[in-house]
Amino acid sequence: MTNILLPTSTAGSLPKPSWLAEPEALWSPWKLQGDALADGQRDALQVALHEQTQAGIDIVSDGEQTRQHFVTTFIENLNGVDFEQRKTVTIRDRYQASVPTVIGPVSRQQSVFVEDAKFLRKQTKQPIKWALPGPMTMIDTLYDDYYHSREKLAWEFAKILNQEAKELEAAGVDIIQFDEPAFNVFFDDVNDWGMACLERAIEGLNCETAVHICYGYGIKANTEWKKTLGDEWRQYESVFPKLQKSNIDIISLECHNSRVPIELLELLRGKKVMVGAIDVASQVIETPEEVAQTLRQALKFIDADKLYPCTNCGMAPLSRATARAKLAALSAGSKIVRAELAQT
């Protein structure tokens, strides 16, 4: 994969070019259609790759340039979900959204992201990471009018995700990441069946696997929710022990500017950890030293060969200039700590 100590990566999304979609927004509609859209998405993927390599990012991604949203774009390609029949639900117990309805058995007739992954693989020799929505986060983004059971629907999605993940691995993806922000909310479900569903999604994979849990994008609903969490955010404490025992290789989470007690990382000892050292809910550009300080704190609880500097979450709501500067800071801060480790 990579022999670099403290290899850097992003949690997922990067801002889209303004000619492709309205910038600094989630669920932003495409500005192109048909073949022009497909060409534009591929162009944007190459731009995202270039910006990552220019910033010195070691494990690169597609920047989610071919998807409108990290969950719904995958679901749009499945059978059994009606996007015309919409209901209002509360997502992650936090904000209301109009979502599609599950009206029959869910299934996947063809791959969703595999051609995009093959395209990215041809563009670079660097390790590549691909993000998929996790089963629990998928069910939290739908109205279920068929299974009438969160658990049953999650198991069906886990099987579908496993099919997609195996094809992504065959396409040359080095790390497959499952985005599970819902793990930070539905703690009883995570421990009862959510973790088992995630294990089903990674069944039979030989590439590395990751799960990204976090306090959400830097959008108003999430930042307002964070204000209610008090001085110490101990939510991770409920799921870290289960994650530590799981077959997932890498845990991705936010650290910089969060109120998560850094010592909670001790509960993950032995796992690789993507440490979020870039705050995606702020326009302020971190200094390399600030990044380095976050990494130094994390190194008290994570072995150096298992620490992967990363962003807290996706960067789609940021401007491209801000995202570029933050990625450069992530790379520069990681170099500082690499140099310090080389001297010890």
**Discrete helix count:** 10
Query: What is the oligomer described by this structure?
Result: single chain
CATH-assigned fold name? TIM Barrel
Instruction: Summarize the amount of helix as a percent range.
Output: 25-40%
Reading off the top of the CATH hierarchy, the class is best stated as Alpha Beta
Strand content: 15-25%
Mean pLDDT across all residues, rounded? 93
Task: Output the strand order for the largest sheet.
Answer: 3-5-6-7-8-9
Q: Quick one: biggest sheet?
A: 6 strands, parallel
Number of domains: 1
H-E order: HHEEHEHEHEHEHHEEHEH
Overall spatial form: globular
End-to-end span in angstroms? 25 Å
Low-confidence stretches: none
The total beta strand count reads 9
CATH architecture: Alpha-Beta Barrel
Short description:
The protein has 344 residues and is α/β, with parallel strands linked by helices.
Describe this structure in words.
The chain is of the alpha/beta class and 344 residues long. The protein has a single domain, classed as TIM Barrel. The protein is globular and about 60 Å long. The model has no long low-confidence stretch (mean pLDDT 93).
Quickly list its features.
six-stranded parallel sheet, 9 strands, single chain, TIM Barrel, 37% helix, alpha/beta
